[in-house]
Structures are given as structure tokens and as C-alpha cells.
Design a protein that fits this description.
heterodimer; A: about 400 residues; alpha/beta; 3-stranded antiparallel β-sheet; 18 helices; B: alpha/beta; about 40% helix
Chain lengths: ~400, ~375
């Protein structure tokens, strides 16, 4: 399906890199008109970041960019030039949302502060998502997604053993907490606008957003007044609870027994049904190393998929620790649900995309391809703003489309 | 939906004013209703007489289970209905007819009666959250947060290459599944409120995790490379956690990232430290070499020789002043004293058992201030304020 739930909503989208475009993508996937303002002199970093089709660099060959920008339009403008800015202002006049994820002050310097934009479009929904908020003693701290993990406690808490932080292996806050908190806030502000006719400003500090993603632990820490030591894949509440090596070069499975019932079934599989001293969860947690050794001995003798099949058939939660290749080529559940889709693109060819992670009324959301750099510049300015061919040529000659 | 006329009343109106949501989630979907509740929706947990599983865990478990219940259920109400009785079903149906969204979760009430739900409440968005989705060979497979992180691919991505893959802490499958459930429900509501027709959303937690893997899927598809834990072979030598005098800092100074590396070297040279001269050597301008294990080991030795004399606060101040991408690796307990969060008044106060505790503030500030949080229904059937 190509849902048009958000048809009629238009973004002037100044987001770039990871979190911002991942937020606005959900709107274009559902039929909103997301006009991505780009620059050829300050390129969206994921256009140059790869991976690239056939490992050949190209501004339209990045899979990372493609995965964050499906269904959008690309308009290239020199926002700092008076004529370029005039086009942006006119786009904003025709928009419902202005979005950016620049650092503090960047939009002000472009003459696109909330006050500036509201003067142009009083009922605008204005999304800013700087890392640490717009003002304050650390507002100017530069960061990437992993920096957000670092300052929130998420990085510290991701580790094998006490006092040895490892952190998430990705810029994790960029890929879930921050884009989707931002999208939810925009959707809420748009509903309020439908209700009241009023616009709103959304100031999303990516640090504050990410703290909510570990919110339950923050509450626990506030209640108990102390940190929990890092315990790897183990749990304070259940055992066995871990990732165990299987036969094979780098093959692993996750196995958990979070209830007495699941433990009984697992114990039978392990041949440990008659063991005393493991009856309660507390006993099992206190002797987790012994249990982990038992599970490891069992998994090490089996290939990952066979081991998981046995455990699942007996009602024990288990899964192969899936790599990207496994997910794409071997995961039967994702395949059965048509999770992966291929989309044609002039430079990326027939490339792979993850569907939005749900089915709606039994169907998948079909994605539209991401835009080439500046692909829609003339089209948008002529059809939406009524610029003539002569005016567009003049702008092109004046270097506005850079 | 009708416009509210009075201006003051208008401005104070919360985004989800007038929206009733029935919430029968208890794990993977439980944060979704919370997001709506904080922005003005009436979110009612429909609970069996003994409570939903998260309530039972909170009553029997330790502080961790209680904290989870509090965080995920703040701002919600609770209503006890015995859906095993006709009276309970009738009362539920009456509520459902006035609801705009209904959240259900595998293993919880009404998940196996979605056809009934849709018949009774054709005007509602019904969002069903489950570990693997409502269809497919694993629709009924046993699961846990860790198992979903493994099945979705995020566990593979973290950890050290010489050790086991490492999951993310604090129920991240729950967080990711919930936030996707919330956003798609909000999107479907736009259509539902415009047309009067409801929708059925089938959210798979595994798919939600698989949708959050940075660029790993494209790396495989376009370059036939598998992204490895620890960033082995793909991450710049500078992008890592390093010890300092009183803990750790996280640094990112690849050559592609603005002037972070240049500024770092300038910082070292200004302090007259020999590490500055070492990083000025030509090899550190070789982007490919900087991805190797040899470079990572060398970087660590040179950088930590410098940082051992500085504490986190000093390094953070210098990072801000010099525009180096570097920040403190904070413990969770550190964030209560974070000066930036204090400046922004991030934390709220909530009273638990007569004691005030800090509670996470909003994930976003919407101006005018439209977000608020109220205590969770700690007693089964509690209606809240």
C-alpha cells in the first residue's frame, strides 16, 4: 500500500545526517510532501558517508542516505544568498512544518529562527533537535550519536562487567529514540493545530529524549540512590539470561528463562531437571555462572539454528544472534512477513530497504525511492511557487542552486 | 474534530485533548500509551482483577520492577474489568465504542479477540504489539527483550570482537517497539479522525529492532560486508571510550568530522604534551590506516597518555571551547547533577511512598508547554487525578 494518511502536510525540511532525516522520512512514507533543502557546498554528510553502490563513491550512491530519505523531494538552494533565502521563505509560507537538527544558533544565523519563521507563517510547527538543547552551559558541546549515549548513562551501562563501559555499537540514539520522539511530537503539534489553529515550537534535546529511553532505570536509580553494575547480557531478575556460543566460527544464540516455567522446560532440555538449588529465580540469579556454563556446554555442541529450534519447540525464548546478512538472507519470519522490499533508483539500481516495521490493515507500506541531489529544484519552485522558466534560469546563473 | 473558540482555552489545549485510548499492553507496547497520556489523551489501562503482568511484577518484584511500572504507566488511569464475564465484556465494549485508539499486546487481554475489537470499535485505531508480529512462523514463539534484540540484529552490533555480542541495557526492545507503535498510531489517527474509519496496526518488535541498525542493511546489500561489533574495520581509531583521571570520556575525531582531530592536536600542543607531536605525524592523515587495529592501539596509547592528567569536567570544558567532539561517559547517577539538564530544568519530582524522587522530564519541549506527567495508578483500578 502507498498510504496517503498524511497527504496535504508539507515540510520545509532542513534536517541532515542521521536522526533528523530519519524523523521526516516517516512523514514522506505516509504521503506528506517533504521538501528536503540541500546544498552542494555543505552536503548532507550521509550522502558522502556510504556504503556506496558497488563501493563507488557518488552523491547519489549512498545506501545510508537512501535509507533515511525515501519519498522526499530534493531542492538545492544557497540558503545564505538573498535569492535563495527568498525561495526558502516562500516554501515555508506553503508549509506546515519546518524541521532542522542543526546546533544551537545555526537557524538564527540563516534568518530562520522560530520567530523569523513564525513571522512568515504564524501557525507553523517548528522542530529543532539540537543535541543538548538550545541554551545552557553544555549547549555548544559537539557530538554524534555515541556522544549522546555517553552523556546519558547508556554508554556506561552497556558493558560486560563492572566499571568497563563498552557502549552500543551504533549511534543508537540517532536510530530510534530521537527521530521517533521528534516525529511523535510533530504529529502531536499538528493535531493541536487542527484543533486550535495554533502552531507550536518543538525543542527536542536529543540528550533528554535519549534519557527517556532509559527512563525506567533513571527512576530506579533515583529510588535506590545508586548505579547498577554492568552485567553484560545477564539480568538481575532471571537466569539463565545470556548470549551463548554455538558450533561455528562466530555463531551465537540468546537464551532466557524469565519464569519458573521457562526454567523447568530449559532444565529438561539441558538434562538438569533434577538439580536442587535452582528452584527460585533468586537462587538461579545467585548461581548464574553455573547455569551459564551448563547452557554454554549445551549450545557449543549444536549449530545455532538447530539449538534455537529445539528451545523454541519447548517454549523457551531463544533466537539466533542475527547479523545483517542473516536477517536479509536467512530470517524466515522477516521473509514470511515481506519485511524487505526492493526499490528501483537511477544510480543505486534495485536496492534493498527495510519496510516500516509494521503492517497496516494487513499490508506493507511501499516505499518510494529517495531523491537525487537537487532532482526537484526546478519542479518544486515552478509548480509550488510559480517561478517561471526565465526566473529559474536567472537563479541558476546566479548560483542560487548550489 | 471541531475548533475550540475561546483563545485562552485554545492555547492551553493539549494535543491529544478529547482522545480516549484503551491500553492493555504490559511490556513491549507500554511506553506508547505513556507518550499519548503525557500530551493530554485519556489513557486507561484495562486490567483483570489481579492486574496486568507488569503490575503483578511490580507488586512482587524489587525496585526495578516498580520503577518500570512507574515510568511506563505515569499519567495513565487504571480500570479493572473482568473480561471473562459478560458484564466485563459489555462494559469494555461500551468504553471501546468511545475510544479512538486501542493498544493490545500478545499475551494480554483482547489480543486474541481483535476481530471483536474491530467490530465493536470500527472507528478506532487498533494497535497490536507483539515480539514477532501477528503473522509468520514465529507469531507465537516465546520471547524476551534480549531474545528480540538478538533476533532483530542489534545484539550482533555491540560488544568487543573477541567477546560475545552484547545487548543494550534496560529493555530497549520495549522502547523501540513502543516508540514505533506510538508514531504509527498517531499517523493512523490522522486518517481515522478525518474519515471515521479505523485501522489495524500489527507492530513487530523484531522488525522495529531491525529498522534501527544504522546502515548495516545497506552495507550488506551494496557492499556485501557484514557490520561487526566494535566497529571492527569500519570505525576510526579515535571513535572510542578512553580513560581519564576520574572516569572515561568518549571521543570522535575522524578526519571527516569537522575540525575535531585538528583541534584535539592543538589542545595537546598548547599544553606542551608530547602526544601532540605524535598525532602530527603523517600516518594520522591516512584515513584507511586509521581504521586498522594497529592504529586503534596506537591511538589509545597516545591519547590516554594525555588524558590521564585531566578529569572529565576539564576535558568537557575544553571540548566545548575548542570544538572537539568529546564528552564525559556519565553513569546514570551522574545525570541528576548534569549542569545542562539542571539549566533546562529537565527533571520533575514525583512522590513515591511519601518520598520525593527525581523523574525524567519530557523527551521534547513543546511551546507553549503542553507536556505534563502525573503519578501512575499504583492501585489496580485507580483512576488518577
Amino acid at each position: 500500500m502507498k498510504p496517503q494518511f498524511l497527504k496535504g502536510i508539507r515540510f520545509t525540511d532542513l534536517t541532515w545526517a542521521g536522526a533528523g532525516p530519519f524523523c521526516t522520512k516517516i512523514f514522506s512514507d505516509f504521503g506528506a510532501d517533504v521538501i528536503k533543502i540541500e546544498s552542494t557546498t555543505r552536503l548532507d554528510s550521509v550522502r558522502t558517508g556510504g556504503p556506496f553502490k558497488d563501493r563507488k563513491f557518488g552523491l547519489n550512491r549512498s545506501g545510508y542516505f537512501a535509507s533515511r530519505n525515501s519519498g522526499k523531494k530534493s531542492v538545492v538552494l544557497d540558503v545564505k544568498s538573498p535569492m535563495g533565502r527568498e525561495q526558502v521563505h516562500d516554501l515555508i509560507r506553503n508549509s506546515d512544518v519546518v524541521s532542522n537538527n542543526f546546533g544551537p544558533g545555526a537557524m538564527d544565523r540563516m534568518g530562520l529562527s522560530y520567530e523569523d519563521v513564525r513571522a512568515i507563517k504564524p501557525d507553523i510547527v517548528y522542530l529543532s533537535m539540537p543535541m543538548y538543547g538550545e541554551s545552557g552551559p553544555r549547549a555548544e558541546l559537539l557530538g554524534v550519536g555515541m556522544t549522546i549515549s555517553a552523556v546519558t548513562g547508556l554508554m556506561w551501562s552497556t558493558g560486560y562487567c563492572p566499571g568497563d563501559p563498552v557502549g552500543p555499537g551504533t549511534h543508537y540514539p540517532d536510530h530510534a529514540a530521537n527521530p521517533y520522539h521528534a516525529a511523535f511530537a510533530v504529529l502531536a503539534a499538528l493535531r493541536r493545530r487542527r484543533l486550535t489553529g495554533l502552531g507550536a515550537k518543538i525543542d527536542l534535546s536529543q540528550v533528554e529524549s535519549t534519557i527517556n529511553f532509559i527512563g525506567a532505570e533513571v527512576v530506579r536509580c533515583a529510588m535506590e540512590g545508586s548505579d547498577r553494575p554492568q552485567t553484560g547480557n545477564a539480568s538481575d531478575e532471571a537466569a539463565p539470561h545470556g548470549i551463548y556460543r554455538c558450533a561455528g566460527e562466530d555463531d551465537w544464540i540468546a537464551v532466557t528463562a524469565t519464569t519458573d516455567d521457562e526454567w523447568s522446560r530449559l532444565a529438561r532440555i539441558l538434562g538438569a531437571g533434577g538439580l536442587v538449588g535452582f528452584v527460585t529465580a533468586a537462587e538461579r540469579v545467585s548461581r548464574r555462572e553455573e547455569l551459564d556454563r551448563m547452557v554454554s556446554d549445551w549450545t557449543a555442541a549444536r549449530d545455532a539454528q538447530s539449538a534455537v529450534a529445539i528451545l523454541r519447540s519447548e517454549g523457551v525464548p531463544a533466537a539466533v544472534v542475527a547479523s545483517s546478512r542473516y536477517l536479509v538472507e536467512q530470517d524466515a519470519q522477516l521473509a514470511a512477513r515481506d519485511y524487505w522490499q526492493r526499490v528501483e533508483h537511477p544510480e543505486l539500481g534495485n536496492s534493498l530497504y527495510a519496510s516500516p516495521p509494521y503492517r497496516i490493515d494487513g499490508e506493507r507500506v511501499d516505499l518510494a525511492r529517495p531523491p537525487l541531489l537537487g532532482e526537484h529544484t526546478r519542479e518544486v519552485l515552478s509548480t509550488l511557487l510559480g517561478r517561471t522558466e526565465q526566473e529559474l534560469d536567472d537563479m541558476e546563473r546566479a548560483g542560487v542552486f548550489t | 474534530m471541531s475548533h475550540v473558540s475561546d483563545n485562552d482555552q485554545n492555547a492551553a489545549l493539549h494535543p491529544y485533548h478529547g482522545v480516549r485510548i484503551l491500553d492493555m499492553t504490559y511490556r513491549y507496547g507500554s511506553y506508547a500509551g505513556r507518550l499519548f497520556a503525557d500530551l493530554g489523551a485519556e489513557v486507561i489501562r484495562i486490567e483483570p482483577p489481579g492486574g496486568l503482568p507488569d503490575r503483578i511484577e511490580a507488586e512482587r518484584g524489587g525496585t526495578g520492577a516498580l520503577a518500570r511500572f512507574m515510568f511506563f504507566n505515569a499519567s495513565k488511569k487504571s480500570l479493572v474489568l473482568d473480561l471473562a464475564t459478560q458484564g466485563g465484556i459489555d462494559a469494555f465494549d461500551e468504553l471501546a465504542r468511545g475510544a479512538l485508539a486501542i493498544f493490545v499486546e500478545r499475551g494480554g487481554p483482547m489480543y486474541d479477540r481483535i476481530a471483536h475489537l474491530r467490530a465493536v470499535a470500527p472507528q478506532a485505531v487498533v494497535t497490536a504489539v507483539s515480539p514477532f508480529g501477528m503473522t509468520g512462523p514465529l507469531a507465537d514463539a516465546p520471547a524476551s527483550d534480549l531474545v528480540i534484540q538478538a533476533a532483530g540484529g542489534i545484539a550482533w552490533m555491540s560488544g568487543r570482537i573477541e567477546e560475545a555480542p552484547l545487548s543494550l541495557p534496560f529493555d530497549q526492545a520495549t522502547m523501540v517497539a513502543s516508540i514505533y507503535a506510538a508514531t504509527v498510531t498517531a499517523i493512523a489517527l490522522v486518517d481515522t479522525e478525518a474519515t471515521g474509519a479505523g485501522h489495524l496496526i500489527d507492530v513487530s518488535a523484531q522488525e522495529c529492532i531491525a529498522h534501527s541498525l544504522q546502515n548495516a542493511i545497506q552495507v550488506w546489500d551494496l557492499e556485501q560486508r557484514v557490520s561487526m561489533r566494535g566497529g571492527e574495520g569500519t570505525r576510526d581509531a579515535s571513535e572510542d571510550i578512553f580513560p581519564c583521571k576520574d572516569g572515561f570520556v568518549f571521543l570522535a575525531a575522524p578526519l571527516a568530522l569537522g575540525s575535531s582531530f585538528k583541534s584535539l592536536v592543538g589542545f595537546m600542543q598548547d599544553r606542551g604534551h608530547p602526544s601532540g607531536a605524535k598525532f602530527a605525524e603523517p600516518c594520522w592523515q591516512d584515513r584507511e590506516w586509521r581504521l586498522t587495529r594497529e592504529a586503534r592501539d596506537a591511538f589509545r596509547a597516545i591519547f590516554t597518555d594525555f588524558t590521564r592528567d585531566f578529569d572529565r569536567e576539564t576535558l568537557t570544558r575544553e571540548a566545548i571551547a575548542r570544538r572537539i567532539v568529546m564528552g564525559p561517559v556519565s553513569r546514570v547517577s551522574d545525570i541528576f547533577d548534569d549542569p545542562q539538564l539542571a539549566h533546562r530544568g529537565f527533571f520533575r519530582t514525583m512522590t513515591v511512598a511519601g518520598r520525593e524522587i527525581a523523574f525524567p522530564g519530557p523527551p521534547y519541549k513543546i511551546t507553549p508547554e503542553l507536556w505534563s506527567v502525573s503519578p501512575p495508578p499504583l492501585r489496580n483500578g485507580e483512576q488518577g487525578e
